[in-house]
Amino acid sequence: MRLTSRLALLLGALCPLVLAGCSGAPDEDPASSQVAATSAAPDGPVAAVCDKLPPGPATAPAGAVTVDPAVPDDLATKTKDSPPGTTFWLEPGAHHLGDDRFDQVQPKDGDTYVGAPGAVLDGRRVNQYAFTGHAKNVKIQSLTVQGFTAPRDEGVVNHDSGDGWLIQHTTVQDNDGAGLMAGAKQQVLDNCLRRNGQYGMNAFSGDGDITGLVVRGNEITGNNTGDWEKKVDGCGCTGGIKFWAVNGADVVGNWVHDNRGTGLWADTNDNDFLIEGNLIEDNDSSAITYETSYNAVIRNNTLRRNNLVDGRAYTDRGDTFPVATIYLSESGGEPRVQARTSKLEVYGNVLENNWNGITLWENADRFCNSPANTSSGVCTRLVPDTAKCAAPAIAQKPLYDDCRWKTQRVDVHNNRFVLDPAVVGCQETCARMGLLSNFGTYPDWSPYMGDVVQTAITQSQGNTWHDNAYTGPWTFIAGDQSHILGIGEWEGAPYDQDARTTYQRGGGG
Q1: 106: which of 44, 133, 290, 410 fits an S-S bond (Cβ 3.0–4.6 Å)?
Q2: Which of 442, 482, 454 lies closest to 362, judged by CA?
Q3: Residue 11: its pLDDT value, please?
Q4: What pLDDT is stored for residue 39 in this prediction?
Q5: Where is the Right handed beta helix domain (predicted)?
Q6: What is the pLDDT of residue 143?
Q7: Cα 182 to Cα 210: distance, rounded to the nearest angstrom
Q8: Amino acid 36: pLDDT
Q9: What residues of the chain score a pLDDT lower than 50?
């Protein structure tokens, strides 16, 4: 990584979530961000930590309780018998819990678990969970956690989404379900999250928003070994990390690669994300999906060879939808939802030899109470009472606007898009940008019938591309997926996109 990239990541990590003056706020000067964008995107692995994590202490820290791998269930027993705030040092070797699938460790507030070199907590494909319960401010450091069998949509570490947990220098691998769950103010720093059955981390809590989440310096690779999309068609339940109702997250300086599914996926009422300085490559589906969510800054990331599996599958079955490397679905900036920015800004990123580029999509039939709302039973952050979004009231403002997630106030600028057809193995079908919707058709009480959303997303919701650089046979889809444009039509009325952009037809980097 270049020195400028290291500096950018350090500044991003130090920028508190609550400061509106952080870089990326709406008043940032686009000219200055162009300079930063060109120099700050990583050009090599930013977090190649798997198998290279620093070892834990070779001797027990002062005052720590020593855990013996030769004693069955020693860790859970000593946790139960010790007061809150105890530090546990796991000796070298394989530590096991009891022989029941629900045998697990239930920390108390402030407990710390530190592994010696070679310390492994192994579920032996017997236990479902490693660390559970609602304790606050638990620390897990320098430990390997493997072989647990959490069910779908559940996790192995911090199973119950306790707040304030710190997971650092830890390997969570070869488990079913998700390696980690997440609670408020959780810090996930410098870990290896690999080969887990569903997700590396599933940031979900049934108790409301997760706030102040930090995911920095991790290698997230090879997850979704269970191939859940094939088991449950359209489940949307796979990938490196899935975020649900997270309100404030910094996802900075991670290496997200070779996951079966999407690399980073924010889905359903997420808000206030900074996705910065990550290297995201060789994931089967999109590198980044931001869906039915609000207000984000996606900047200075390098995205390579993502979406080749899913993109090619779309094309092979004759589907012309521009399935994208950065997919923004029913998501945008909303000033009424408090965040560090009131836009969804995508800048300073390098996209190289992925299947397609950036697609902004808004499903005209997806809104609160519609059968097309796959987040069933959930409404927007602007209308907490879902029952209000019904005929006839939904046809009038403010519900007409507030009952649907809008792709609006998206600013795509100062990015570099490179596609060499010889590398990707296709021509125009894999070199597309999209700004589109479908023709509204149902339910019969929908106020969004016809082309009203298609017109809005392209012409009146403040979505703009500008100051980008293209290399390759790029085309553009606007309005509906049958409307494929060249660069001149894209730049002209009524779309008026990509002012001050450079375009080079040839492939290569």
Answers
A1: 133
A2: 454
A3: 33
A4: 53
A5: 159-307
A6: 98
A7: 8
A8: 36
A9: 1-38, 509
What whole-number distance in Å separates Cα of residue 385 and Cα of residue 392?
16
Top CATH class of 3-504 equals mainly beta
The pLDDT value recorded for residue 427 is 75
Q: What are phi and psi of 373, to 5 degrees?
A: -80, 100
Give which of 279, 428, 257 is closest to 355, Cα–Cα: 428
Q: What angle do helix axes 30-40 and 3-14 make, rounded to 10 degrees?
A: 120
Kind and range of the H or E run holding 157: strand 155-157
**CB within 8 Å of 504: residues ≥ 6 apart:** 469, 470, 471, 472
Residues near 98 by Cβ (< 8 Å), separated by ≥ 6?
72, 73, 76, 127
Residue 278 and residue 328: Cα distance in Å, rounded? 18
Spell out the domain ranges in the chain.
Answer: 3-504
- In the structure encoding, which two tokens stand for residue 68, read together? 């013996």
Give me the pLDDT at residue 38, please: 46
- pLDDT for 75 equals 98
Tell the residue number behind the tokens 């600028």, with chain if given: 413
DSSP, res 63 = T
**pLDDT of the residue at 507:** 55
* Structure-block tokens of residue 64: 């720590």
Q: Position 372: which residue type?
A: A
Q: From the CB of residue 136, how many other CB atoms can be counted at a distance below 10 Å? A: 17
Cα four-point dihedral sign 86, 91, 94, 96: negative
Question: Against a cut of 0.85, is the pTM above it?
Answer: yes
CA angle 371/377/382 to nearest 5° reads 105
Residue 289 bridge partners (DSSP)? 265, 327
State the pairing for strand pair 475-479/484-485: antiparallel
- The answer to whether 94 touches 69, Cβ cutoff 8 Å, is yes
